[in-house]
Amino acid sequence: MDYLGQLLANGLVLGAIYALAAVAFTLVYGVVRLVNFAFGELFMLGAFLTASLMLPEVRLLGAIVPMPGFSLPVAAAGAIALTAALGVLVDRIAYRPLRNAPRLAPLITSIAVSVVLQSLAQTVWGAEELRFPEFHLATLPPVVLFDSIYLSVMDLVVMATALAAMLGLSAFIARSSLGRAMRASAEDQMAATLVGIPVNRVVAAAFAIGSGFAALAGLLYAQTYGFAHSSMGFLPGLKALTAAVLGGIGSIPGAALGGLILGLVEALGSGYLPNGTAWKDAISFVLLVGLLYLRPQGLLGKPELNSAGRGSLLGGASEFGAGWLRAAFGKLDGGLARAASAGTPAALGLLALALVVGALLPSDYWLRILTLVVIYGMLASGLNVIVGFAGLLDLGFVAFWAVGAYLTSILFVLVLKDQFGVEPATIWWLLYLNLPLAGLLAAGFAVMLGTPTLRLRGDYLAIMTLGFGEIVRVVAINWMDLTNGPMGIRGIPAPNLFGIALGSPRAQFFFALALAVVVVFAIARLVRSYVGRAWVAIREDEEAAEAMGVPTARYKLYAYAASGFVGGFVGVFYAHTQQYISPLNFSLFENILLLMLVVLGGLGTFIGPFVGALIWIVFLQLALDLPFVQAYPETRFALLGIVLIVLMVFRPQGLAASARVALTMPGARPANAKEAA
Amino acid sequence: MKPLTGAPSPAPLLEARAITVRFGGLQAVGDLDMAIGRNAIHGLIGPNGAGKTTVLNVLTGFVRPTEGELVFDGAEIGGLGVNGFARRGLARTFQNIRLFGAMTVLESVLVGAHQRFSANALSLVFGRRAARAAEAAMIARAYELLAFVGLGAEVADRVATTLSYGHQRRVEIARALISSPKLLLLDEPLAGMNAVEKAEIADLVRQVRAQGIAVLLIEHDMQVVRRLCDHLTVLEYGRKLADGPPEQVLADPAVQAAYLGRAR
Ligand SMILES: Nc1ncnc2c1ncn2[C@@H]1O[C@H](COP(=O)(O)OP(=O)(O)O)[C@@H](O)[C@H]1O
Ligand SMILES: [Mg+2]
Fold it and tell me: Is the pLDDT of residue B111 over 70?
């Protein structure tokens, strides 16, 4: 009972924090239908700003800067105000131009804003934790309830603050005209515009309040755990989103309820499940996935939020940018479109070019980088099947990649070498067996994960797949016996063919190229058939596709399977070239990166993923020559984020908007047959 | 074709029995009985908002009726998913054209032939001859159908949504026909067309029927309906107002009141 009481108390503290951050997600989603992933980072900034304002001095960009040394309440108020202003600014710059753009553009922008904010925070405050200064109330002795439950004074302060903030917000929404306008927009944005509610002001208010709540949650979190760190917002951000979805995104009481439930479930789970502390992150995501499966609209939400527009994930033209900019984008688009539709001769030409470069390039360093380009290109191609062709936004793709990488690593290292003492070189052929085996395993896995998502669309689909990806990562970290946990698996042998080690960068590049040929060829053959036509039809208009006799559920699963197969297949090779894997290799960030590569190079094309990978990875290396980037390597990610934001604002339809591939089998057309004869 | 074994009227192709559709509080279709004969051109008419599209949605599985049952070609089909309706031989077009964006005309039409393909993933990847032959056969069929609906082969490679409105309608009809349906359901295919185009499409409908495919046609133009249809069902406020041969139905005072009393 004492133990339970203590867990409940801890759960309430955590739940209060989640609830505050969940309000941020829910408020903004209610008004603009945007899942603003950047709230996790605003949460983190709230913590950093508060800590900085409380300290006498902090190290910023490596220099010691004197600080006012306020007490916690004053510092918190300052941090909240600053973060709220930042939230409004972000909306103004990155989201407002995209109000009418289709689903993927604002989602990408919000992810990009996250990346920018996190990289900047790391640049400014450094990669180490910043200790959160102790507030004088925290030195008071804890309150003891029922002789056994210990609550620090600060825990009580956290709960009281959260309660006060929630009540304040409720009163604001019920009483003030701005609050009422906010609620009206949440109910029906169209009607709100019609009755003359100034939507932009309402949205700005929602962002200000939401960002303020995120900052408050972040500083309370940092206060409770005693530190601030640039990546601290990531998991709590996802959990707050989970809480918001749990309660029914768009509903403020729902967010409070979802936050409390999540906090309590997490506290109880980590207290009672075997090895529960390690698994507590998985608990939240299992809850999320289960709820979305059973009741997609959340506990208190509305079902119509689980819907999505038709057509490609990107689209619509920007109203911004000068004529020359549009013309330039148009030219680039035309070029990419021509490249995408050039077909087999162009593909063979590119392959020949790659072979020549691979044979002549003197630098091992650049060969390694090009190998990485090919690997990422292949992975992005796999993701492209589901996102680009079938139009399903999948944020859990890395899981399939992880399945392949772990399968081969576990077999080679943990089982054969460690258990049976088999030298990898003697069983070199196993790699070639593992490639299709891992592909099939990952495909099966993809179908398993895909099945419960079939009813979901748009943002909910993205959130659910994201939940799956996180579950797989947490499992990889914690299932020590199977995966070696966070230590990862070392000593994975380099590829080998008939006893000839293919360890040299040049050999590996050619190996990668050979796999890429297989991957692109197989994908192209599937896409250029009735299967690909069914996928694109589903992407463009799911109902009409059904009416044409396409069993859409089955074809979505095929898309998951094909995408999973590629992930698993490439994962095997990835493990053997890296020779070391750990759960860190398969983070959500990697998935986002792959998505960005596809968007950069062209959704729904064959060469797009490789173009995107080439641009990004080569940029990553070249940027290292800049002195500033050398000092702060993480600014490269900020730059990627900025590039993406600019791209989405000025060109929400993506660089290769008009690129499309033919969806009929080459050589099956009567005209072609005549030519050949 | 089944031989007529003395029965005066063979079983209808599609029978809808006591169909009721409610959207929340609104009853869009009430207790509707309707039978579409084999090889008929069956007109479904009624003022705007009468529930015609809803009936067509029920007959193609888009809307599950609140009550009632559907028998198609002798089998109960009410429980099927939308693609099941299509697979049984019910093909449709949409009142607001719904072609697939980013697809060429040829590709769009081929989507309609989806159920005719059966190659598995491996034979697709390895380009087996049977898979190629099936594709080539369907492409040839698609070209035939494009010609049949009055489109030249030169539009085949244009993105379908960039065509003119009238041409898009024809693509939609070709996309529905390529599945070799038993019943083609057209939701206001003549809307927004000039007299020449209307005559062409009406002619097309007759040719479809000549191939042994029954047609359900929603249409407002009474001249066309009178000349084209063998049988009419009139809806008003979701209920059946009249049902029978065109001459008889259009002479019915209740139908005239429903039509003449309004704008149309
Ligand atoms: N999905 C729907 N949800 C709610 N009401 C609908 C829906 N579809 C149609 N209705 C309503 O049903 C009635 C009949 O519509 P419809 O079948 O489109 O008529 P018609 O095609 O004869 O013009 C209309 O009042 C319409 O608003
Ligand atoms: Mg209608």
Answer: yes
